[in-house]
Amino acid sequence: MYHFIQKFHSGWAYLALLILVVAVVNSLIGLFSKKDFTSKDRKIALFALIAIHIQLLVGIILYFVSPLGLDSFGQMQDKALRLTSLEHPLINIIAIVLITIGWSKHKKFVSSESKFKTFSIFYGIGLLLILSRIPWKLWL
Predict the structure, then answer these.
(1) pTM for this one?
(2) pLDDT digits (tens, 9 = 90+) for 96-110
(3) C-alpha distances in Å from residue 61, one per residue of 17, 57, 89, 94, 115
(4) Contact (Cβ atoms closer than 8 angstroms) between residue 104 and residue 128
(5) DSSP single-letter state for residue 84
(6) Contact at 8 Å (CB) between 32 and 132?
């Protein structure tokens, strides 16, 4: 079961990151081109939010069924182990919280510029945080 969840977590990450990148690029294009915020823009941001939350749920399950999991906290000198057992989950949870805040805040705004700006900032910072803590050596 562990290996299936691990492969699913890695595979779904490609899709989740792709959708998140599309949402950030779409919001930046909308912001700089001063276009109207449409239901298409809202759906792109919503799909990114859903994909990232699914990734979080699978990651939490993986964390608790992993043979490394909670037992690895005594071995924080090992950089790779620290990345996968502490830094990756913690920073990605922070990133997902920021993305969720961005989704919630956009609802309060009326102007298209404010909505695109909110998505650009919160989704963009979330994307950068996620990319900073991916265990690239294990993933690629």
Answers:
(1) 0.90
(2) 999 999 999 999 999
(3) 19, 6, 12, 17, 33
(4) no
(5) I
(6) no
Amino acid at position 14, single letter = Y
Q: Give DSSP secondary structure letters for 20-82.
A: HHHHHHHHHHHHHHTPPP-HHHHHHHHHHHHHHHHHHHHHHHHHHHSSSGGGGGGGTTSHHHH
- Kindly state the tokens that stand for 40: 């298409």
What digits encode the pLDDT tens for the residues 25-55?
999 999 999 999 999 999 999 999 999 999 9
Q: Which residues of 106-122 are buried (b: 16+ CB within 10 A; e: fewer)?
A: beeeeebeebbbbbbbb
